[in-house]
Amino acid sequence: MLDRLNLYILVEPPIFHMTDMLGAYLKRVRTQRGLTLRVVEEKTGISNAYLSQVENGKIVKPSPSILHKLAQYYDISYEYLLALAGHPLPDRDAKAPVFRISNDLLELSEEDRDMVLDYVRFLKSRKMKQR
Q1: CA dihedral 55, 72, 126, 32 (to 10 degrees)
Q2: Residue 43: closest CA among 72, 78, 64, 79
Q3: Which residues have CB under 8 Å from 9's CB, separation 6+?
Q4: pLDDT bracket for residue 96 (50, 70, 90)
Q5: Distance CA 99, CA 82 (A)
Q6: Residue 17 contacts by C-beta under 8 Å, 6 or more apart in sequence?
Q7: What is the pTM for the complete model shown?
Q8: Is pLDDT above 50 for 110?
Q9: Phi, psi values for residue 37, rounded to 5°
Q10: Going from the N-terminus, what domains does the chain have, and what CATH number goes with each?
Q11: Other C-beta atoms within 10 Å of 78: how many?
Q12: Is the dihedral of CA 69, 98, 117, 28 positive or negative?
């Protein structure tokens, strides 16, 4: 039943800062795809030095435009990156179902979180194929 719904996942602020997770998440996504910082730089126009600083937590709140480029290139949720960076989320359609996942998601192991995100990507891809 859930795969029929248009899912939006909002992450409520956990006990610790979500900005602590942004760099680690982006690095994991990049390395899982077998990409180097230089390749990402070539494809997005974001310098590899800047990307490295984001991944290592030296820059904790990249601009929304940087996050948008990364979300598009990595094919991941822009809204999720905004939330991790501590930016306000864009307004949502009031009719769209919203599932709030707070500390529950963060209490999962890294492997389980990856599985949840992979499933969401799978559902999105199925929806795109049906169009």
Answers
A1: -30
A2: 72
A3: 77, 79, 80, 99, 101, 120
A4: very low
A5: 17
A6: 86
A7: 0.57
A8: yes
A9: -60, -35
A10: 2-130 (1.10.260.40)
A11: 16
A12: positive
